[in-house]
């Protein structure tokens, strides 16, 4: 009898148990799109602190700032993708000076993850030259000069984007098996494979946990974004990306795919409105943040019903 | 809409749309990336008139085969997820029209935040793709409300690179090209002395004094600027009946 293949299915608590203060954590998705929000919520209510976060930021960074978990952030932007666009908790962390930022061009995030994925110390990139990105990095961002002059004899000096090495990566994919093979079903893979490739420990949450056979039959081959080498733990988290967008946006996914939800715009607005004063935030936090994931999903349903009834 | 439209019927928003379309004159087979409704209608107008080879997307990940109305969908011809957008940026085959919270006389732009870098007084998006856009390919700006708050002495944070940042010894800066600034008052570029902000045309009804009062620095050639041309009948029909029948443009420019 050969040994059984590794079953990576885990709970949110299993994942949080592996995290330590001061870690650098990369968070997949983009803005308010397919963010691993179940993992983010679990991290926000844990005791882990003093984190460095690498992200195309959205409410993931906002909620971690709200919980006081972030000491340093590397990002290309922070956006909720729909009005009022600017995340209120990230804005507060910034205007009160409680986080140090290494703001950069969006393309520099991809470049830094690619460098880490290839175990390179840096990759050259034009983006950043002449801008205040260099000032944001307070000496941590250097340039590199090409050994090959251009045809006119001048020599290009470029930003030497350092590798964005991650202690851990969080990503949300729509469909996965128990071994870490996983697929996206919408129009965009974002950068989730790069986040995993740049990290020591890779944590995947998924809407649908299926057999390998069902996974590969459900989606075209090109959608199989993650293979087993990319993933350490798989958490079954239906609706886990809520309140960000996830799932099949263009009916491109196969018949077996059930994960299909847009951004919960009403709830995202409610999140923003709840940050206006201490009282409303305490109410929001007690109902939706300090609770476990099961309770969160139940309260979301209840909240929706309340909104309907109030109409 | 079969009758000839008279000048008085034409709105400021429609003049702005045509000025935004002209941003893409001669652009060829590149990706047009407008980031607000007025330049979006403008890019699509250019595609339906003089620039049929422009690539346009749904703003998400799909390349449109046809040229649908603002907010509408349509048949697609290709795939452009965010990571491939960065490949297009690096290739130079793109012209972006970004917004701006601040633009200075040399074309430095800010959409990141106001105040000190590590403790701003007001937080916006962060630099987004502005550093990479400006250093790689043609970039234009759209400002729906031309004011001294936008056009001031200096920007708080340089997200979009201006002409005074260029190191002429470094060829990596060679593709910096801030093509146009279109506002509710006129059309501008950075063709003034030492690549400074210059008036190319003022929209009909806009005075020199109005532009001067609403700009925090001297505008080159302001006295000489002609009127922005009016839309043709064909352009008006396309704007009103095909591209923006719901009048989204009128919510951005009043």
From TrEMBL, chain A:
SMART domains referenced in this protein's UniProt entry, alphabetically: CoA_trans
Cross-referenced Gene3D superfamilies: 3.30.30.40, Glutaconate Coenzyme A-transferase
InterPro entries: CoA_trans_fam_I (IPR004165), NagB/RpiA_transferase-like (IPR037171)
Keyword Nucleotidyltransferase belongs to the record: no
Transmembrane found in the keyword field: no
Keywords: Transferase
Recorded superkingdom: Bacteria
Pfam family of the protein (one): CoA_trans
GO molecular function terms listed in the Swiss-Prot or TrEMBL record: CoA-transferase activity
PANTHER family cross-referenced by the UniProt entry: ACETATE COA-TRANSFERASE SUBUNIT ALPHA, KETOACID-COENZYME A TRANSFERASE
Name assigned to this protein: Putative CoA-transferase alpha subunit
UniProt organism field: Gordonia soli NBRC 108243
TrEMBL record, chain B:
Any one Gene Ontology molecular-function term assigned to this protein's record: CoA-transferase activity
Swiss-Prot/TrEMBL keywords: Transferase
Gene3D superfamilies cross-referenced by the UniProt entry: Glutaconate Coenzyme A-transferase (3.40.1080.10)
Family: Belongs to the 3-oxoacid CoA-transferase subunit B family.
Name this polypeptide is given: Putative CoA-transferase beta subunit
């Amino acid at each position: 009898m050969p040994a059984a293949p590794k079953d990576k299915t885990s709970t949110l608590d299993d994942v949080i148990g592996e995290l330590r203060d001061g870690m650098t954590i990369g968070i997949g998705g983009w803005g308010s799109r397919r963010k691993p929000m179940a993992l983010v919520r679990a991290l926000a209510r844990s005791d882990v602190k003093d984190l460095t976060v690498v992200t195309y930021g959205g409410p993931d960074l906002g909620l971690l700032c709200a919980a006081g978990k972030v000491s340093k952030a590397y990002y290309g932007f922070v956006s909720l993708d729909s009005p009022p666009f600017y995340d209120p908790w990230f804005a507060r962390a910034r205007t009160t000076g409680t986080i140090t930022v290494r703001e950069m061009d969006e393309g520099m995030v991809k470049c830094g993850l690619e460098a880490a994925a290839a175990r390179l110390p840096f990759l050259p990139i034009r983006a950043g030259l002449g801008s205040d990105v260099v000032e944001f990095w307070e000496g941590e961002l250097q340039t590199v000069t090409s050994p090959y002059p251009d045809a006119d004899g001048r020599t290009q000096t470029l930003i030497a984007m350092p590798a964005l090495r991650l202690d851990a990566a969080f990503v949300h994919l729509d469909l996965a098996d128990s071994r870490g093979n996983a697929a996206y079903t919408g129009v965009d893979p974002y950068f989730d494979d790069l986040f995993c490739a740049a990290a020591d420990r890779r944590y995947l949450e998924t809407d649908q946990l299926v057999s390998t056979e069902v996974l590969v039959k459900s989606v075209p081959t090109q959608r199989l974004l993650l293979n087993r080498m990319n993933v350490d733990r798989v958490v079954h988290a239906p609706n886990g990306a809520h309140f960000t967008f996830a799932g099949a946006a263009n009916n491109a996914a196969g018949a077996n795919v059930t994960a299909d939800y847009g951004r919960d715009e009403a709830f995202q607005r409610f999140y923003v409105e709840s940050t206006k004063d201490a009282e409303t935030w305490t109410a929001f936090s007690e109902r939706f943040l300090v609770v476990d994931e099961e309770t969160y999903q139940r309260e979301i349903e209840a909240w929706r019903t309340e909104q309907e009834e109030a109409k | 809409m079969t009758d000839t439209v008279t000048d008085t019927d034409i709105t400021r928003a429609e003049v702005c749309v045509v000025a935004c379309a002209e941003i893409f004159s001669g652009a060829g087979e590149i990706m047009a990336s407008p980031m607000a409704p007025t330049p979006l209608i403008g890019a699509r107008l250019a595609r339906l008139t003089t620039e049929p080879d422009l690539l346009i997307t749904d703003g998400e990940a799909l390349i449109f085969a046809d040229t649908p109305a603002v907010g509408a969908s349509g048949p697609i011809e290709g795939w452009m997820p965010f990571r491939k957008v960065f490949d297009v940026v690096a290739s130079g085959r793109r012209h972006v029209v970004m917004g701006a919270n601040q633009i200075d006389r040399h074309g430095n732009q800010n959409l990141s935040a106001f105040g000190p870098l590590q403790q701003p007084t007001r937080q916006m998006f962060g630099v987004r793709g502005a550093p990479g856009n400006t250093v790689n390919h043609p970039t234009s700006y759209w400002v729906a409300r031309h004011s001294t708050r936008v056009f001031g002495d200096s920007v708080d944070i340089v997200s979009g690179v201006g002409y005074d940042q260029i190191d002429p010894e470094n060829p990596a800066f060679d593709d910096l090209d801030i093509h146009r600034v279109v506002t509710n008052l006129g059309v501008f570029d950075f063709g003034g002395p030492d690549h400074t902000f210059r008036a190319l045309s003022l929209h009909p009804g806009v005075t020199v004094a109005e532009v001067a009062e609403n700009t925090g620095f001297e505008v080159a050639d302001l006295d000489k600027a002609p009127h922005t041309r009016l839309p043709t009948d064909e352009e008006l029909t396309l704007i009103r009946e095909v591209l923006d029948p719901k009048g989204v443009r009128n919510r951005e420019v009043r």
